[in-house]
Design goal:
The chain has a domain of about 160 residues. It contains 20 helices and two strands. The chain has a two-stranded antiparallel ribbon. The C terminus is likely disordered.
C-alpha cells in the first residue's frame, strides 16, 4: 500500500523535528498559562497544594486518578498482590484448580468491597443470561444482554440496583458502574459463545470463573469468553522465552508513566484550564491547540496505565490480555481510534463484523457503524453529549470509507497512479493531518465539554488569535507574541497503515469505532 511506502530518513527526521518543536512550543505556552492562572478563583477547587518545597501546586481535577493513587492506592495494591500470591501458590500446588482460585478470590474481593447484596445482584444477571444461553438463540442472548446493560444505565432501574451496594465510599459509583457493565458484557459473550458452540457444553461454573476474575472485574479490559476459557483451562501453562522479562518491563513502564503523570500535573493544569472558558479564551492559538491535544494524550496515558497494570497481573496468570491502546499521536484515521481494545474486540465479534460483512459496501458499513455506536452509546450512558459524540465519530468513520471510495473513482485513481509512491504517501499524510484534528475535536466533546470544544473550533478554524495574556515572569512579552501554526501535524511513521474496509480482512482492527471509557 502507498501509505506504507518508506520515505527518506532525512525527511522523516525533519517531520519529527517539526512535530517536536511544535509540541515544545505549545507546551511552553501551557506552562506559562498554568503559572499565570494558579491563583485564579476558578482554579481553587481543582488546583491543590502539591510540592510545597518548590512552590508547585497540583492539578487534581481528575477524580478517578486522584482516588486511585491516594486513598485507594493501598487497597488496590493489596488486592492485586493477594491475587498474584494466591495464584502463584495454586499454580505450584494444584494448577488444575487455578481457575477456581481466581473465581473464589474475585468473589471474596467483590463481596468485601461492594457487599453481599451487590454480589447477589450480579449473580442474578449471570443466571439470567446463562438460562438464555441454554435456549440457543443468539438474538435472544444479545437482546437480553442489552436489556441488562440498559438497566444499569437508565433510571429508575439504575437507582434501584445501586441500592444493593453496602456502605458509602468515594469510588462507589465508579466501581458499581464498572463492575456491573463489564459483568453484563462478559455474560453476553458467554451466552453468544454457548450458542455458537453448543457441542462444548459450557456450564454456569465456567461463566462464574470467567466473570469474577478480579483483575478484569471492575475496569476491564474484557476478553471474549472463548479466548479466556481456552487460556485459563490450560492445566500446565508454559511461559514463552523472554516472557518474564517482558512482564517486568511492562510493570516498570507503568510505574514510570504514573510518576511522569504526577510530575506533569505539578506543572501543567490541562484538566483545570478548560473549565475556565474566560481564561482559556485568552490563550494564544498555539497553547489552545496544545491544550486540546494534551487532553486526548492524557486520556490515552490514563487508559494505557490502567490496562498496563491489569495486563501485568493477567500475564503473570498466563493469560494473553488485550493490548493497551495505540498512542494518540500515531492516529490519523477514525478506524484506529479505540482506547479499549477489549471492548473493541467484543463489538467487532458480536456486532460490527456480523452486520458489516466485508466492510467494503457503503450501506452495510453504515448499518454496522450505526448498530455499533448505538450499543456504545448505551455502554457510556445515554445523554445528549454522548449522542453528539456517537454521531460525530460514526460520521467520521463512514466519511473515511466515502473518501476511500471517491479516491478509487477513475479520474482520481489515475491521478494518484501518476504520482510516485512517495508523493502519494505525502498527499495521504496531508489529509491524515486534517483527519487527526477532526479526531481530536470530535472526542473533546466527551472528554471536556461542548462549550470548550466550541471555543477551540471557533478559535482554530474561524477567528484565530486570542486576546493575549501577559506572563509575569517575562516582562514585555505575552503568550500572544509567541505563536505557531494552529495545527500540529501527526507524525506518519513508515510502519503505519491506512485503515479501511478493504485492506486485510481483519475488519474491526483496521476499521473500528472509537471507544472511550470515562
Amino acid at each position: 500500500m502507498r501509505i506504507k511506502t518508506a520515505l527518506p530518513a532525512a525527511e522523516l527526521g525533519l517531520y519529527s523535528l517539526v512535530l517536536s518543536g511544535a509540541l515544545a512550543y505549545a507546551g511552553r505556552g501551557l506552562l506559562e498559562a498554568s503559572q499565570d492562572g494558579v491563583h485564579r478563583k476558578a482554579f481553587r477547587e481543582s488546583v491543590r497544594p502539591g510540592w510545597e518545597y518548590i512552590g508547585r501546586k497540583m492539578d487534581v481535577a481528575d477524580f478517578e486518578w486522584v482516588m486511585w493513587f491516594t486513598s485507594f492506592r493501598n487497597v488496590i495494591v493489596f488486592a492485586l498482590s493477594g491475587h498474584v500470591l494466591f495464584a502463584k501458590l495454586c499454580t505450584m500446588v494444584a494448577p488444575q484448580l487455578r481457575s477456581w482460585m481466581y473465581a473464589v478470590y474475585g468473589v471474596l474481593a467483590v463481596t468485601g468491597t461492594m457487599g453481599p447484596w451487590y454480589l447477589l445482584l450480579l449473580l442474578g444477571h449471570c443466571v439470567g443470561l446463562y438460562v438464555a444461553s441454554l435456549l440457543g438463540q443468539p438474538w435472544l442472548c444479545l437482546g437480553l444482554g442489552l436489556a441488562s446493560l440498559a438497566s444499569f444505565k437508565m433510571d429508575p432501574l439504575i437507582s434501584w440496583q445501586s441500592g444493593f451496594v453496602t456502605g458509602t465510599f468515594d469510588l462507589q459509583e465508579v466501581l458499581f458502574h464498572g463492575g456491573s457493565g463489564f459483568t453484563v458484557l462478559r455474560c453476553t459473550s458467554f451466552a453468544l459463545e454457548s450458542c455458537a458452540h453448543p457441542d462444548r457444553h459450557y456450564s454456569l461454573a465456567d461463566l462464574l470463573k470467567y466473570n469474577f476474575y478480579l483483575p478484569f472485574f471492575f475496569f476491564g479490559p474484557i476478553m471474549t469468553f472463548d479466548r479466556f476459557h481456552a487460556q485459563v483451562s490450560q492445566v500446565e501453562p508454559v511461559r514463552r522465552e523472554g516472557e518474564l522479562w517482558h512482564i517486568r518491563a511492562q510493570a516498570g513502564l507503568s510505574v514510570a508513566a504514573i510518576m511522569a503523570v504526577d510530575v506533569f500535573f505539578h506543572f501543567f493544569y490541562i484538566l483545570t484550564i478548560p473549565s475556565d472558558l474566560k481564561f482559556a479564551n485568552r490563550l494564544p492559538d498555539s497553547a489552545l491547540a496544545g491544550l486540546a491535544y494534551s487532553n486526548l494524550v492524557y486520556d490515552w496515558v490514563k487508559a494505557a496505565i490502567l490496562f498496563g497494570v491489569v495486563n501485568t497481573v493477567a500475564c503473570l496468570d498466563h493469560l494473553d490480555p488485550p493490548q493497551p491502546p495505540k498512542c494518540i499521536t500515531a492516529l490519523y484515521v477514525f478506524a484506529e481510534t479505540h482506547f479499549d481494545r477489549g471492548i473493541n474486540d467484543w463489538l467487532c465479534k458480536y456486532v460490527y463484523d456480523h452486520v458489516g460483512g466485508e466492510h467494503s459496501a457503503v450501506i452495510p458499513e453504515l448499518a454496522a457503524t450505526v448498530a455499533t455506536f448505538a450499543i456504545t452509546t448505551l455502554w457510556l450512558g445515554p445523554c445528549d453529549i454522548v449522542y453528539l459524540w456517537s454521531f460525530l465519530n460514526c460520521f467520521g468513520l463512514n466519511f473515511e470509507l466515502w473518501v476511500q471510495k471517491l479516491a478509487e473513482w477513475g479520474p482520481l485513481a489515475r491521478i494518484e497512479a501518476s504520482l510516485s509512491v512517495q508523493m502519494s504517501r505525502r498527499v495521504r499524510a496531508l489529509f491524515g493531518a486534517l483527519n487527526f484534528w477532526a479526531i481530536i475535536m470530535y472526542n473533546l466533546v466527551s472528554l471536556n465539554s461542548l462549550e470548550f470544544t466550541e471555543l477551540v473550533a471557533r478559535r482554530l478554524l474561524l477567528t484565530g488569535e486570542g486576546q493575549g495574556m501577559e506572563i509575569q515572569n517575562v516582562p514585555g512579552t505575552s503568550l500572544k507574541d509567541r505563536d505557531l501554526p494552529e495545527c500540529l501535524p501527526p507524525l506518519v511513521t513508515p510502519g503505519t497503515q491506512q485503515g479501511g474496509p478493504t485492506t486485510s480482512g481483519r475488519g474491526w482492527q483496521e476499521k473500528s469505532p472509537q471507544i472511550w471509557i470515562a
